Amino acid sequence: MSAVLDNHGHAHDSHDHHAPSGWRRWVYATNHKDIGTLYLLFSFTMLMIGGVLALLIRAELFQPGLQLVNPELFNQLTTMHGLIMVFGAIMPAFVGFANWMIPLQIGASDMAFARMNNFSFWLMIPAALMLVSSFFMPGGAPAAGWTLYAPLTLQMGPSMDAGIFAMHILGASSIMGSINIIVTILNMRAPGMTLMKMPMFAWTWLITAYLLIAVMPVLAGAITMTLTDRHFGTSFFNPAGGGDPVMYQHIFWFFGHPEVYIMILPAFGIISQIVPAFARKKLFGYASMVYATSSIAILSFIVWAHHMFTTGMPVTGQLFFMYATMLISVPTAVKIFNWVATMWRGSMTFETPMLFAVGFIFVFTMGGFTGLILAMAPIDIQLQDTYYVVAHFHYVLVAGSLFSMFAGVYYWLPKWTGVMYSETRGQIHFWASLIFFNITFFPMHFLGLAGMPRRYADYPMQFADFNAIASVGALGFGLAQVYFFLAVVVPAMRGKGAKAPQKPWDGAEGLEWEVPSPAPFHTFENPPKLDATATRVIG
Predict the structure, then answer these.
(1) Residue limits of the Cytochrome oxidase subunit I profile domain (predicted)?
(2) What's the distance, Cα to Cα, between the start and end of the chain in Å?
(3) Catalytic-residue membership of 261
(4) Which residues make beta-bridge pairs with 499?
(5) I want to staple 471 with a disulfide (CB 3.0 to 4.6 A). Which of 58, 192, 413, 440 is the partner?
(6) One of 189, 335, 415, 522 is an active-site residue; which one?
């Protein structure tokens, strides 16, 4: 509830300034900071659930033969791990960052549609419950892979319908969140903040929100066609009725490839805030970063069929998608170059946010290179559906999205909670994450090159050693995230630690550092006026 301001900027009812307390504060939350906190806690919960599924997968693959689960349950684990991590962990976490930081960064009092904001968060709870409970439905969880390819989806039990319904709800939540972010950024910036003076995080989210609105309905269409094929006698994807399972792949990946960038563009934004702060320099090439982000978003719509080189497309099609995919690496490389140039001859210090940012740049670049290798149609045909692909997208999504989120949490946690995290614990978390991540996923490149297919519960003896190493690494990586929650997040939420100054990082710039730590319940009720450089508040 924000106080109503009259023409002179005076609040009419002062009692509205007090934060609501108890369960009502959270259930009826309309404050962007509370909703951001809810999103972040929800996504961490889903990260833990998805992580447990991943550890079950790795435990099964620790050695050849069937250890813990049968192949059918193994397929359910791989499917639900993917769905929960993508739609339950990564996307809501970035929306949580957006809710918390965008109004603070652009000098807005709150998000544009506060009640819709509340609704878009609470929609996620039933969807998540439906996804997780699908394991307990007749026939178990969906086992068609997270891509939900036909014809497998037409043969699944009732949990498939629950999964489709859950995806629809999550998609509606995403679209509402995106509308909110676009309207907030376009209409509620502080006087003097032009679009080209906005923080990079706000820019990347503006572009991401447009991507989401463009592609979520495409996913909705694909899964609705699946639903009608299952229950209403249509034959969109059923060859017996004149349908085509490959058409599903085209529709899905037209959503799926922009979706990959939806999960990485906000990460670019977070890194673009942190690197200049700890290099104590302005971001190198701000305008080129904005244009590169926009180029990535536009190009992401014309590369979808590089996921489909083995479906028998004509050579002309393969060449087009191969070159388009190679082209998208150019704006991505521009961003990497700009971050490195920002650090060049900067006065660098390596607190935990910067460690995660530099770790992100290093490991994400490796993921980018393997993506470039997979863009080559002749190579991709050999590596399709092997562990090489698994290694590639985990380098991009875990070392990309997840590392950037950790960087963002450490960077903004003092502003959120008012206390400083323990630097030692942060560094332990970083080094454990980086080392165990590489122990887990680097061997998968070799497994894939040697021909080990993904989504298999068993494998021949020659793949045993690398799989054992990967499984040990996965356990270490999982424990590092539990350590992060217990040793960093919980103490900060309880207010334990040194009191955070208003601006804990001396190189940090932006409006979020102009408010006290912790950020008060209501901020910027009178919009701040910016000076010509748009970094300082006047008066």
Answers:
(1) 17-531
(2) 27
(3) yes
(4) 419
(5) 58
(6) 335
All residues at 6 or more sequence positions from 278 whose CB lies less than 8 Å from its CB, including other chains: 346, 348, 349, 350, 351, 353, 354, 357, 505, 507
* Selected catalytic residue, list 33, 307, 415, 503: 307
Is 230 marked active-site?
no
Alpha helices in 344-463 (DSSP H): 352-375, 377-383, 387-396, 403-417, 423-449
Cα 366 from Cα 364, distance rounded (Å)? 5
Q: Which CATH superfamily is domain 28-513 in?
A: Cytochrome c oxidase-like, subunit I domain (1.20.210.10)
* Options 173, 226, 370, 401, the catalytic residue: 173
- Active site annotation includes 72: no
pTM of the model: 0.94
Predicted confidence pLDDT, tens digits, the chain (539 residues) = 344 444 444 444 444 457 788 999 999 999 999 999 999 999 999 999 999 999 999 999 999 999 999 999 999 999 999 999 999 999 999 999 999 999 999 999 999 999 999 999 999 999 999 999 999 999 999 999 999 999 999 999 999 999 999 999 999 999 999 999 999 999 999 999 999 999 999 999 999 999 999 999 999 999 999 999 999 999 999 999 999 999 999 999 999 999 999 999 999 999 999 999 999 999 999 999 999 999 999 999 999 999 999 999 999 999 999 999 999 999 999 999 999 999 999 999 999 999 999 999 999 999 999 999 999 999 999 999 999 999 999 999 999 999 999 999 999 999 999 999 999 999 999 999 999 999 999 999 999 999 999 999 999 999 999 999 999 999 999 999 999 999 999 999 999 999 999 999 999 999 999 999 999 999 999 989 887 655 556 54
Q: What angle do CA 425, 366, 305 make, to 5 degrees?
A: 125
Q: Catalytic: 513?
A: no
Candidates 495, 513, 525, 517; CA nearest to 105 is 513
Catalytic residue among 174, 204, 295, 352: 174
CA distance 477 to 417: 26
User: Pick the catalytic residue: 58, 257, 281, 394?
Assistant: 257
DSSP string over 487-523: IIIHHHHTT-SSBPPSS-STT--SGGGGS-SSPPSS-
* CA distance linking residue 264 with residue 438, whole number of Å: 19
Considering 122, 146, 149, 456, which one is annotated as catalytic?
A: 146
**Which residues make Cβ contacts (< 8 Å) with residue 140, sequence separation at least 6?**
72, 73, 76, 134, 157, 159
Residue 488 CA: distances (Å) to CA of 275, 417, 467, 497, 504? 22, 12, 31, 10, 17
Say whether 259 is catalytic.
yes
Q: Which of 39, 261, 411, 505 is catalytic?
A: 261
Residue 174 annotated among the catalytic residues of the structure = yes
Based on the residue annotation, tell me whether 272 is a catalytic residue of this protein: yes
Residue found by looking up tokens 């970063």 in the block: 289
DSSP at 462: G
3-state SS, one letter per residue, for 6-66: CCCCCECCHHHHCCCCHHHHHHCCCCHHHHHHHHHHHHHHHHHHHHHHHHHHHHHCCCCCC
